[in-house]
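Figure S7 source data.
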Amino acid sequence: MSDAELPQSTEPTVQDDFEPVPVFEEAGDMDLRPGADNCYKCSVCDTSCPVAEVDDDFPGPKFQGPEQWRLKRAEDDVGIDDSIMSCSNCMRCDDACPSGVPLSQMHNTARGAYVDEQMSKLSREYVRNRILANYRSLAWVGSKVPRLTNAIMGNSLVQKLNEKLLGITAERDFPAFATQTFREWWAERGGPQVRSDEKRIAYFHGCYSNYNTPEVGKALVRVFESFGYEVAVPRQRCSGTPMFANGMLDDAERAASVNVSELSDLLEEGYDVIASCTSCSMSLRQEYPELFQLSGVEEVAENTWESLEYLRVHEDLEAALEAASVDEQAFAYHAPCHARNQGLDRQAVELFSEVDGVKMEDVGDSCSGISGTYGWKEEKYETSMQIAEDMFEHMHHADGDVGMTECPTCSMQMEHGTGYEIKHPLQLLEDALV
Ligand code: SF4
Ligand code: SF4
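Tokens for the predicted iron/sulfur cluster complex:
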């Protein structure tokens, strides 16, 4: 049976010699990265928070992090404030804090504790969030009959029912499933076409590149093979990003156990881990080691890269692109918040600005507002669109009507607000080099 056909159970496959152990039994017993007590109340995090900027009811990251933390430590029986569910997990506050306070880790653990202990498992919000957080399970079923699923999910009556029954906004078009997943393509192709003992990468494609935009995964494979890399496509689960954002830490840990186990095996064979989605790389690099004690988790974090980042460091990508030319195109580029957190926000603009025929325009440093599952929630839709206003405006003023970003849900928001076609940087790299 090929990997593409493997049963997609939500149960983890773990190595026999370790058990996943949750780090935090409860919110008051967290093992935070250093800095939890370093908050000097400067409020820089609050001014960087896109949700606080448009939602007067949201108390902001300082309250969600250090203030609740202190309160919780002082009074054991105090609960987590329900506003934690209004944090979109964009992680901009984490990046902005000058004092190294582990804000996103505090938010993730507080949200996990809130969902575990205070949220009714029968509530509409919990059921909706669980469905959104486990998009991969939904996509696995839907992609078995993609045309039928697309027709059903694209029906406006179904969208209205989704909103009424589940609280998933009817304002957005459900992303279409590809007629052939990336993994099916990979299996049909017969796996890697290049073999190498020296240059090896394990591709973490994530859910969206597999089920919705396999062209991104194909571009990655072709670009890396053109540089002489042997590509492996390991068995994998969701990176966990939508699970963290919805406080579903048990689901995230099950997924992380499989991912870390599979990727650890490949690290031993000399592979580096490459993601095409910046939220996936963020998850593997930062959230896994912050939240889970899993054998190999630090090694996976240390050897995970975003795709362009890896090529820029390991190959002379600039020289390769100087010699390339593509049909004249202008792009409005948006850097995802999770790319910013990894210091990758300028790389696509810097890289492609020199390519003959390409005009790249950075549309500013605003958040796209959708933040994964956040903008899909009926009650968050308007907030999500208000946050995105700056980005939409910059896109409309930019030359050209093609957008570019590394994040699948930012790309949904960009398309939703402008009607532009949105590409991943790997697709331009493929056009230029392969
Ligand atoms: S930016 Fe950091 S130090 Fe300043 S208030 Fe926020 S958490 Fe505290
Ligand atoms: S993660 Fe984003 S939405 Fe949440 S508190 Fe920080 S800046 Fe605000």
